[in-house]
Amino acid sequence: xxxxxxxxxxARRMPDALRFHFDVVSPYAYLGWTQIHALAGxxxxxxxxxxxxxxxxxxxxxxxxxxEIPAKRAYVFKDVxxxxxxxxxxxxxxxxxxxxxLLALRIASLPLSADDRRRAIDALFTATWATGAGVETAEAxxxxxxxxxxxxxxxxxxxxxxxAKQRLRDQTDAAIAAGVFGVPTVIADGEVFWGVDAFDLxxxxxxxxxxxRGELPASFANLRPSATR
Length: 229
Hints:
Strand order of the largest sheet: 2-1-3-4
CATH superfamily: Glutaredoxin
Radius of gyration: 20 Å
CATH class: Alpha Beta
Distance between the termini: 84 Å
Strand content: 5-15%
CATH architecture: 3-Layer(aba) Sandwich
């Protein structure tokens, strides 16, 4: 009796997700969040949102945030308004800015299903930058999450636990170690792309049209400073 063999079926490796690093305090991160899913979908990628504390990133690199520099603050809000209009994205300022985003970020870092995480982040960004309701208070956060069909009070309570606080710290540290210095930052196949203006470059990179192929050209890589301040 002959024995028939069938070739072994191998699971195809899924392409890596695009890691979207964000802080709800950033209006550019809000704009990026409204666009990253369509970008990822064009290339058959998923989106892995990673909440980070922007203030912690800035402190690590010894930088001030855009809102801490008066001239830059004025420019940024005009720039964001222009970009939002071009993208067709609603925009309204939060009650205060900068504000403390820790509660929102800890909720965005909780171990939730992919669908619930996206709905939570949608709700938090919308409350901050689309409706102007804000997310600095527990009451505002609960209202935003309840409006998205999530258990707001339960998520707020979970976000107060020690492990939730540590998770956000760990994510921020890991982001810094991976080369993140601002938000939004997308890491695609190990390559770092900073800012909403880089989304066209991510498109090119994922389509195989990146002109530098992930490496800095030698003419720039070998530059040495001749002046410091």
